Automatic annotation (TrEMBL):
This is UDP-glucuronic acid decarboxylase 1. It comes from Boothiomyces macroporosus. It is a single-pass type II membrane protein. The gene is UXS1. GO terms for molecular function: NAD+ binding; UDP-glucuronate decarboxylase activity. Keywords: Decarboxylase, Glycoprotein, Golgi apparatus, Lyase, Membrane, NAD, Signal-anchor, Transmembrane, Transmembrane helix. GO terms for cellular component: Golgi cisterna membrane. Pathway: Nucleotide-sugar biosynthesis; UDP-alpha-D-xylose biosynthesis; UDP-alpha-D-xylose from UDP-alpha-D-glucuronate: step 1/1. It catalyses: UDP-alpha-D-glucuronate + H(+) = UDP-alpha-D-xylose + CO2. The keyword DNA repair does not apply.
Length: 362
């Protein structure tokens, strides 16, 4: 296994910080952590005004940042990082910030218009789990289209920088491997995944239309498979499925022959990419993903080994429109925003297993 990563962020962008500053925010039930000679509890309590420490930025450098979907899996980690960096932010994943003077939790459906004063918008709000978005495809399309339309309108009014969290699903079941940003994709527009795939494609179209005709300063990132603490254990994605099944001694379920490939990135790497994309000046789409490629069978075996014990693998019928291969070309990210993933999949899986053990009290 690669050498363990102990820092996140980028020294070039001034966003670097020790990983140990973030771990207490999601590994809540382990023993206390030493900070400056004082024991800081892993669970932060707003009622006692005990919050994670943040950097103190001069007020001219502080930004009012809106993260849609900020209580979700990826959004909550992004909120953690932005808060630790000293910015203003506008439920369990983020309860440790409730009541902090730099943080506001806003309960609002992005499908409805919204008025607030902001400097930057990270638009992450949209269901990303296949079982979830397929269960309500109309809501998924509305969230993608109307949510993006409303957030772009807000960016236009406030002159805020806007970042769209798009997806590798815009490439569909790709015929080009690995997938570069200039590949147009191979998408079934009426298949079971279309509500999400096409919703993100139209969101990208809207974003660049606002950039061209309304002079909105935009960024678009295409996110490949991401995993880490705070994943919903019931979201139906392969990483959470395998870990939860293995921890409970249940068979790991693989749909199809297991020869389909995926590239998995740890959530801290993704957050680095989101922040560096926002801070950088590149406005065309950027792939954010880990080029290390696994077959689903290989990945299941790795989870088996990390969890330990005797766990069987169960093969079930393949899912319609499930991509056969998925791997990012990240040359643009490396060149334009100095981003490459730092965390090995193995290190990320070990930390994610630790999180799920705490979550399930195992």
């Amino acid at each position: 296994m690669k050498k363990l990563v102990k820092t996140v962020g980028s020294s070039k962008y001034g966003t670097d910080m020790p990983l140990d500053e973030l771990k207490p925010l999601y590994l809540e039930n382990t023993s206390g952590k030493q900070f400056d000679g004082e024991t800081e509890a892993m669970t932060f309590d707003p009622s006692t005004k005990t919050y994670p420490r943040v950097r103190h930025l001069f007020f001219t450098k502080q930004k009012r940042i809106l993260v849609t979907g900020g209580a979700g899996f990826v959004g909550s980690h992004l909120v953690d990082r932005l808060m630790k960096m000293g910015h203003y932010g506008n439920v369990r994943n983020i309860e440790h910030w409730l009541g902090h003077p730099n943080f506001d939790l806003i309960r609002h459906d992005v499908v409805d218009p919204f008025k607030i004063e902001v400097d930057e918008i990270y638009h992450l709000a949209c269901p990303a789990s296949p079982p979830h978005y397929q269960a309500n495809p109309i809501k998924t399309v509305k969230t993608s289209f109307l949510g993006t339309l409303n957030m772009l309108g807000l960016a236009r009014r406030t002159k805020a920088k806007f970042l769209l969290a798009s997806t590798s699903e815009v490439y569909g079941d790709p015929e080009v491997h690995p997938q570069p940003e200039d590949y147009w994709g191979h998408v079934n527009p009426i298949g079971p995944r279309a509500c999400y795939d096409e919703g993100k494609r139209i969101s990208e179209t809207l974003t660049y239309s606002y950039a061209t005709h309304e002079q909105v300063d935009v960024r678009v990132v295409r996110i490949f498979n991401t995993f880490g603490p705070r994943m919903n254990p019931k979201d139906g994605r392969v990483v959470s499925n395998f870990i939860v099944q293995a921890l409970h001694g249940e068979p790991l379920t693989i749909y199809g022959e297991g020869s389909q490939t995926r590239s998995f990135q740890y959530v801290h790497d993704l957050v680095d990419g989101l922040i560096q994309a926002m801070m950088g000046g590149y406005t065309l789409p950027i792939n954010l993903g880990n080029p290390q490629e696994f077959t689903i069978s290989e990945f299941a075996t790795m989870v088996q080994e990390k969890v330990g014990g005797q766990v069987q693998i169960q093969y079930l019928p393949a899912v319609e429109d499930d991509p056969k291969k998925r791997k990012p070309d990240i040359m643009v990210a490396s060149k334009e925003i100095a981003w490459t993933p730092k965390f090995s999949v193995e290190q990320g899986i070990e930390e994610t297993i630790q999180y799920f053990k705490l979550l399930h009290d195992l």
